[in-house]
Structures are given as C-alpha cells and as structure tokens.
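Subject: for your reference before the review

Hello V.,

The reviewers asked for a structural picture of the protein, and I figured it would be easier to keep everything in one thread rather than splitting it across files. Below is the amino acid sequence we used in the manuscript, unchanged from the supplementary table.
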Amino acid sequence: MSSIKLTVKRLYRLQDERMVNTRATARVYLGDALIATEEITGMTESPVSKYLHAGDTAGRPVRVEWDCEGIVEMTVTEIERCPCCQHNEPE
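And here is what came back from the structure prediction:
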C-alpha cells in the first residue's frame, strides 16, 4: 500500500526575537491532483512526520505546498507501508 510521509522539519514564528507557536496549512499533491490538506499548529525545530494514505500513486510525483505566518520547512516522500501493521515494507 502506498503512503505519503509528510515531514515538518521546522515550524515557528518570531515574536520579540523569540520563537513561538504558529499555524501552517499544507497542501499535498499527487501529480496535479490535490489529495490532502493538513492544518499544522505548534512549534518545532525537530522533524515530525505524519503518514497519509495515497492508494495507487502510479508513478505520479508527490509534492507539498504551504501557507504559514512564520518559518516552516516541509517535505513529502512516497513510501510503501504494510497495510496491517503500518511498518515500512522492504524494497
């Protein structure tokens, strides 16, 4: 089963020279099709990941776009995951 791993590498807003919580909206695309919209709130400088079910990706490229009032860095990767236990399947 194909899944998409959305990783937020950092998320914060600067206020009076301090890092504080903020909000970001991530839009995940498979090819040209929007497949998920995720609202992310909080603050992190350590990577945090979420897995999204993708079904059949058929070799289409996956990408993420976002809006944020602050600093954010995100990546997406297609991965194969076991449908019963959700562990990464060997390639």
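For the response letter, the relevant points are probably these. The CA atoms of residues 14 and 63 lie 27 Å apart. The mean pLDDT is 88.

Happy to draft the paragraph if you're swamped.

O.
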